[in-house]
Protein 1
Amino acid sequence: MTVPSQPPATTSAAHIALDIDLPLHRIVGIGPTKAQRLEKLGLTTVRDLLFHLPRRYEDTRETVPLRALQPGSIQTARVRVRNVSLRISPVKRVKLVEATLEDDGASALAVWFNQPFLAKQIVSGMELLVSGKVELSRSGLTFRNPAWERARRDQVHVGTLAPIYPETDHVSSKFLRATIEPLLGLAAQVPDRLPPAVRDAEHLMPIADALHQVHEPRSVESAQQGRERIAFEELFMLQLAAERARRRRLRGVGVVVPYDVEVARSLVATLPFKLTDGQRVAAHEILTDLAAPGPMNRLLQGDVGSGKTVVAALAALMTHHAGMQTAVMAPTEILARQHFATLDQLLSPHGLPPRLLVGSTSAAARREILAGLAAGHDSLIVGTHALIEDDVVLVNLGLAVVDEQHRFGVAQRRRLRQTSGAMPNYLAMTATPIPRSLSNTLYGDVDLSELREMPPGRQRVQTRVVPVHERDSAYEFIRSEVRAGRQAFVICPIIEESDKTGARSATAEFERLSTTVFPDLRVELLHGRMPAREKSERMQRFVQGDADVLVATSVVEVGVDVPNASIMVIEDAQRFGLAQLHQFRGRVGRDQYQSYCLLFEGGIDEEGSARLAAVAAIDSGFDLAERDLQLRGPGSLVGLRQHGLPDMLAADLLDVALAHRARAAALRWLDGDPDLTAWQPLSEAMNVYRAVFDID
Ligand code: ADP
Ligand code: MG
């Protein structure tokens, strides 16, 4: 610990030097026990505490004289204490602390339950502020379990705008206030990442003031301004990092794949269908990016079945014609095999047969494939994580395609790009679209292509939320569909019965359906805990039509193409996210048969019901994602953490206006300071973001 060279910022800890990165247990007045409690909230340093922002404020600034107390309402009064007593209530045998309160003209009572220690803390003669629900009891007007604080010049808890924090066991807002308040002076040591010029232009207060205002606000408005200032900084950093990475990438030397219109035409000409407008636009955007000098970084979003693979195939063929390799990585073996089959069909006739590399590829086949890749013979490789193992070398990777990229970590994605020497073009594909409002904030660095329309002739999957009393008729309906030659999925949220959740499990449902409900049908079970070989055998039986009903867990969420299946039943549907439900639904309606998605609700849950109603009413994954965002907030979507980014403490990702302001400010700042050397706290803070955005 260093000796302070200037007077310490706080009085309560005046005899030691304080430093915002100091672990909390070393702070006087905190100690190991308190520090341990705080750690439950993820708070380990003074800085963490300062940035532990209130959820809201409790305004008890308006006090009333005791004679004006109204029973039934929550009120605050400034009082003097008389007669404190501790007793056991005769009926329920709880410990009661009772105090008589007085002010100039009147008196009232306060009662606290189960807090016997208060009898020692609150003593006769003390001046207090009390705030709480007022009730009329036999002994008169009574504050029931009021919040209280001794009257002083600066109230922290009562008689003020008191912050209400995210809490946990034994870490109450009161505890947090009492812990944070004496440390607030240290806010002056928090480096202000926002350059003064940006602050001035945006009329934002310095970070130290913002921290003061959120924890000890002067007014509701100043608390709001303080919070907004912190939110602005978070968004500014994100936008700055994204835009900086983007500019560097576009300046960088990438692999150039010339855009040969004839090559594109030759593939399109052999397709058994016409490309949708969306596919044509997306393909054009991608091929244009490939031909530009900076490496491409593009996200292709489109619902299941919207035809993303064809677009990727065009890019792969173009890359092949330029003499370079394409790698397509998918999160599961099922998906990888499906891409392989589709690409094989599309591209083998054009002299580009894909190779498949997955976990179950035999050692001999793997050796042969690795040799081919390293020698540059094979130019289209499809696979799983098996593609990023250390000994996989792609000599001249021109294009890396990653399907459902949010299922991979940042490091894995980067590893794929680094399997070759140069900086390849990068195309991410996802069937879980991020709403525009969020993608601008989250994916500032990424160019977006979207397939919003489905190929023509697609069925609309009829989706219904099935009430409990209609379960039997739903089963009858399934039976009739199966009699007509169709197949059905039944999805359960868990593998095995567990008392904890009470959810329907795949194994129990399988038992029930195969013995009681559908003894006459062929029922198959599939879940993630089965060995890979068994999984694929069982799946294969269903694909070939040797099973009528497949009971499964979310393993069928991605991939799995069974055109003959026309029914998707989802048990305990409220337990799944909207995007996931939509994914399940995308498993049916893949042929000419009218298809159905039946959502069985497992329990009463208002928010869950609203979500199920949304799935039933909305067909487009893009529109559903927007709705999900409204219903559950941005936390439900792909998390920042998953992207390796710091959490947003203050910023609301739905606050589009603030995001735009931050983005505009970030672009202006970058124009003047492209290497971010002008403001040191800013360049230091950027290091965290660099790891995420910089791909080289
Ligand atoms: P996604 O990967 O987006 O889920 P796919 O690329 O696998 O979708 O395409 C789904 C199915 O639709 C495939 O059988 C594909 O051949 C077919 N398809 C793709 N584009 C079209 C189109 N424009 N018209 C008709 N069918 C199409
Ligand atoms: Mg696909």
Note: Residues 1-16 have pLDDT under 50 and may be disordered.
Protein 2
Amino acid sequence: MAMLRAATRLSRAFRTNSIFESHASPLSLSSVTVKRLDLRCLLSTAAEAVAEPIKPDISISLTKLLIDGKFVDAASVGKTFPTIDPRTEEIIAHVAEGDVEDVNRAVKAARRAFDKGPWPKMTPYERSKILLRFADLIDKHSDELATLESLDSGKTYQQSRYAEIPTMARLFRYYAGWADKIHGLTVPADGPHSVQILHEPIGVAGQIIPWNFPLLMFSWKVGPALACGNTIVLKTAEQTPLSALLAGKLLYEAGLPEGVLNIISGYGHTAGAAISSHMDIDKLAFTGSTEVGKIVSQAAAASNLKPVTLELGGKSPFIIAEDANIDHAVEVAHFALFFNQGQCCCAGSRTFVHESIYDEFLEKAKARALKRVVGDPFQNGVEQGPQVSDEQFDKVLGYIKIGQEEGARLLTGGDRFGQKGYYIKPTIFADVQDGMRISREEIFGPVQAITKYKTLSEVIQRANDTTYGLAAGVFSKNIDTVNTLSRALRVGTVWVNCYDVFDAAIPFGGYKMSGHGREKGIYSLNNYLQVKAVVTSIKDPAWL
Ligand code: NAI
Ligand code: MG
């Protein structure tokens, strides 16, 4: 019976809250997919922390660096680092550790593939077909990709397999569609001149990605860069190096010419720093902490002034007006914060509830958190796995302690879950004050902070009183409230009566210290294109 309830909850969460793709999309979590999810849940038994961890059916074969189309050892031969299973705190595999010399080799390969190689010279249609073949291979290998993704990061297998991997394939199909539709302009100018505005690929892109959505971050960066005809040196996060290596292998299987995509596993202060300061990299894209976003921007400026796009942290407000459907708002606010173990840049981490519904909301939010199924992410029906690493586990528990010391009211949770693995109980603080650190700093874990408000102008001022500006949620049936809030909030995305809708076509990015530039959609193409004006003098023009 408990499992039946868990299954219903999960399918309802996927159906009603959104998830990555809009429901109009042919690849969205359609009712067919949801039925499969339900079935998988129903077959399972109750979830528990990892006493006897489930052994996923996979052998780890790709652990080397991917340079110039080949899997190779690190330049300092034998140099590796361990990647950890967050369920057990045990080593999954030792992975080749890339450093400065490996980045140099990768840049050389990417440079050659751009300057002399076939990629930018290929017709856009040919590039498009390779991206489409890759999307088909993602579908074909989705079990394997999802297993690696969950093993390395701790996210649930169901989320990887049924939400993230299909979204990845969808995104590559979206950018495959753009590849042969990128074109410049001809513009009129004063005088006898023909003016062409060319949109050229920018060159070698350096891309540094985090661990919370390893394959989706891979896709957001690699998809548009390849569609525009660029070559790439990508560094994965040291916590989650495995899945991108398989994705890279599949891209070459799809027909990518040698050297077009190079993948370096390794640490930030070594391999990451080498990328951001490299003189032969033409563009840098980074997703991660605001702190490191500033460091890589400085390195980019101090080296060759390469342009930088940044997708950084957030402290996103989730505002629930007095007229909102409370049950729906409770469910979506829960999803907005706890999804992916709370490890989302856009997590709805400041829940503002109108005072007239505050007490009822607290009671229901607590009941929902208590029902959240925490356990082995490979167990069907589990909603929440472990945090990604010991560092994140300690950081989140540290913030829970800070919240208690600051005087916020702990409604539920507040502790680790089980004895082994980086599991944390779903935690809620009520009566959170704006000045508290748990209201100002990114916790990046399963900790919901709820506060009450009285008026619309008050909540606008408080919601915007942050250094971040990534996203916001608005829950209301009143069109005036919705319109006022969605224009007043200084954030890159406003989700109204939904949350975390991540369609390939919708741009994503932040205001203020949440970064600059936009990923996904048509906007991401601009990050990977140069604009060149070619002005030709015309003799005897028939018209101007
Ligand atoms: P981080 O910003 O250190 O790591 C993100 C990426 O940057 C990784 O690939 C890392 O190796 C690389 N990196 C680190 N230092 C670098 C350097 N000096 N030069 C170049 N690259 C470097 O994030 P971390 O330490 O994993 O997490 C810390 C906090 O950052 C989290 O608790 C969370 O608050 C936030 N974060 C935000 C993310 C987002 O989606 N915006 C993703 C991951 C973390
Ligand atoms: Mg760091």
Note: Residues 208-212, 235, 237-238, 267-269, 272-273, 276, 287-289, 292, 295-296, 311-313, 345, 392, 395, 442, 444 surround NAI (ligand 1) (CB under 6 Å).
